[in-house]
Design goal:
heterodimer; A: about 140 residues; alpha+beta; Tetrahydropterin Synthase, Chain A; 5-stranded mixed sheet; 4 helices; about 30% strand; elongated; B: about 140 residues; 3 helices; 5 strands
Chain lengths: ~140, ~140
């Protein structure tokens, strides 16, 4: 069974690869390469897989999952400028793709302690653009 | 691998009427959707592609390349059109949202190698909402 917890944070970023010139970045990312940055209200779906416990009827305690997500993701990302304040985005471009991978890496070790296994991370950068990451194996 | 999904919208009218059936059979089969004057929807389509994240861009897909492909293959031919008379396959084929989903997938698959010349990203699925309550999805292996 899959259970999804949704959380939100707001953050700013620049889509810019420091190894490329300004012109190359602008060609690659367009307006998103604006050196002063821009922001999004990100919506994150954290999906966990497991079987309901026969006694509690629950796969996991959602309050514990919320605490983990708040501690590992929201406290790190919310109201931050990702390129300057949240590693690895000092050297990794903070695209929705890389944010999904980073959130997966931050959560995977903790989710297994709460119960269930991390199945997928969905990152909505806007209502009209989102990415899914299911771990390195998928 | 990452799946990237981008949403687009278009508005169009259609009438469900199967040419192989009689008027009364059509009326019975499709009900209100068989109204001879047609009716319309605000369609929302979601296009999903799958691929590895490139180191250079940090992305699995260039959204601007997908925007151009969808504009040429889907929005240009279908937006603000009457599907039954718009000069597309739906002059012959009943424009149910099942058939529309397949046709949109087919059109994207045909234009895909030009829009994305590399091995990745790969077109994975098309999801289309005829209304917020009727949603159709097709993935891979649709005959192009």
């Amino acid at each position: 069974m899959l259970i999804t917890k949704r959380v939100e944070f707001s953050a700013s970023h620049i889509c810019r690869n420091p190894l490329l010139s300004d012109r190359e970045n602008e060609e690659l990312f367009g307006a998103a390469a604006n050196p002063h940055g821009h922001g999004h209200n990100y919506v994150i779906d954290v999906t966990v897989e497991g079987d309901p416990d026969p006694v509690t009827g629950m796969v996991l305690d959602l309050k514990k999952l919320k605490d983990v997500v708040n501690r590992e993701v929201i406290e790190t990302y919310d109201h931050r400028f990702l390129n300057y304040e949240v590693p690895p985005f000092d050297h990794v471009v903070p695209t929705a793709e890389n944010i999904a991978i980073d959130i997966w890496n931050r959560l995977a070790p903790h989710v297994s302690k709460v119960g269930g296994a991390l199945q997928g991370i969905r990152v909505y950068e806007t209502n009209d653009l989102y990415v899914d990451y299911f771990g390195e194996a998928a | 691998m990452i799946r990237v999904t981008r949403a687009y919208r278009f508005s169009a009218s259609h009438r469900l009427h199967a040419p192989g059936l009689s008027d009364s059979e059509n009326a019975e089969l499709y009900g209100k959707c068989n109204n001879p004057y047609g009716h319309g929807h605000n369609y929302v389509i979601e296009v999903s592609a799958r691929g590895p994240v490139e180191d250079r861009s940090g992305r699995a897909l260039d959204p601007r390349a997908l925007d151009r492909l969808v504009q040429d293959q889907v929005l240009e031919p279908f937006d603000q059109q009457n599907l039954n008379t718009g000069g597309t396959v739906f002059e012959e084929l009943v424009p149910t949202t099942e058939n529309l989903a397949r046709e949109i997938y087919r059109r994207l698959a045909v234009g895909w190698p030009t829009a994305f010349p590399g091995a990745w990203p790969a077109l994975e699925k098309v999801r289309i909402a005829e209304t917020p309550r009727n949603i159709f999805e097709v993935s891979g292996h649709v005959q192009t």
